Predict the 3D structure of the following.
Amino acid sequence: MQLISCPFCGLRDETEFRFGAEAGKRRGTASSSAEEWANYLYFQGNPKGQTREIWVHLACGEFFMLERDSMTHEIHQSYCIRKEDQK
Amino acid sequence: MIRRRSHYSAFTLFKEGLLGQVGWQPTWASPEPKPAYDAIVVGGGGHGLATAYYLAKNHGLPNVAVIEKGWLGGGNTGRNTTVVRSNYFYPESVALYDFALRLYEGLSRELNYNIMLSQRGMVVVAHSEFEMEISARLVNAMQINGVDAELFSREQVIEIAPAMNARPDARYPIFGGVWQSRAGVARHDAVAWGYARGASHLGVDIIQNCEVLDFIFEAGRCCGVVTSLGEIRAGRVGLAVAGHSSVLAAKAGFQLPIQSYALQAMVSEPVKPVLDTVVLSLGTGTYVSQSDKGELVFGGGLDRIPSYAQRGNPPLQEQVISGLVEMFPAFGQLKLLRQWAGIVDIVPDSSPIIGPSPLPGLYLNCGWGTGGFKAIPAGGWLLAHLMAIGSHHEISRPFDLGRFTSGRLIDEAAGSGIAH
Ligand SMILES: Cc1cc2nc3c(=O)[nH]c(=O)nc-3n(C[C@H](O)[C@H](O)[C@H](O)COP(=O)(O)OP(=O)(O)OC[C@H]3O[C@@H](n4cnc5c(N)ncnc54)[C@H](O)[C@@H]3O)c2cc1C
Ligand SMILES: [Zn+2]
């Protein structure tokens, strides 16, 4: 059983977490084209190796950033999304 | 170029028995790669090998290569639980999967290779009134689309799978289910090897242990591949690399609507015949069949972590096994023999992607996710059509990558009640 660190609750069982989406996408506006919407909604890098993703801790309900390796499942760091916005 | 091969028959077996088994030809040839081909197929799984076979067979392309980084069928094709069926909801999906099933029905003869297709039927068991309503809807849709389907009562399910937990106080009581009698299982390796043998016979070069690392670009077109054995040029390149589609798409300069996940399966120790059909439970999400060797082959949903690690994680294992034991309490006594996983290519609408890629000269066959073994003959046929003719076959057109921009998705996840 793998442990994942929620920035708020600390290390918890992997079953308490859910993958949300790849990080770094920007939602379009009313004037965005169909291609832009498709890219936002469906298309992704799906990298093999280093990833930067948004996950949710189902127990506390908070979305946060998780950097990990999709090949080895090694977790590098997790941090809250709010902090990034303050930089 | 036609390569010589042994014709497989009872007579040849008898003759070789008398002559000391020295006359057998290799099942497929293993040539060195040539500097250039008419067409290259990347990925020696079922879809890639079938594509090469139909490029040679249906379109007469003499100069085709399949390039595989490992061994034939070593990806998902050789890891899958081999259920074949066409119990889908939308007309587009039925056209595709039933075409595949019809090709499977004639494949052993077509390839002169026994793929051990066993149409033992499959029942998708419903555990509530509401699941029965959805099941009836699916049966109606299948019948309208011209595919055999029957709504089974509780008694019919118990009759076809008597070992199932039929207690009235079961957590998942049996209400009935969807029955497809033409569904069943086939031998996964035999499908890969049969297509490889057929393709090699028609002159296709099958190159194993050769990884595609990049593409050759000229004037904005794909003109071949860069491999671990050097550059190989080709007028058209087909991609059939399942869970690794995004990795190669990145090299070609575009993204796909794919997320790679591990899907795992397990087998028990072998036992005497106890289950002669395929059973999937809508309640537990676990499905099971019994192999010719007597092992119970079973699996369930995806591991929930996007992954390229070819192994299964314990939480899902536990869920799948508890599902199995709930469905068949007697199986709780069995020992687990093996457990493994493959990296599957999951698409938001659970339908495959077949069509031209954004890079001219490069064509896609991917997104089969958890259910592409059943589609191998059709996937190969359609990608070969696309590569040879340059435009869609009418069956593959709805599965074009463009559906994600137009919004015309073929959302089978809910429609057919598949477990993933
Ligand atoms: C556990 C499990 C159970 C399943 N059960 C079923 C089932 O019951 N019924 C069903 O219909 N489907 C099932 N599936 C799905 C099915 O196995 C796949 O959809 C299907 O086999 C895909 O075939 P493919 O030829 O596209 O891919 P694969 O068989 O994975 O072949 C792709 C090949 O590409 C090669 N490759 C990758 N990258 C490169 C590169 N850079 N250069 C060269 N080669 C490369 C790989 O080595 C691999 O051999 C299951 C899958 C799994 C994992
Ligand atoms: Zn938390």
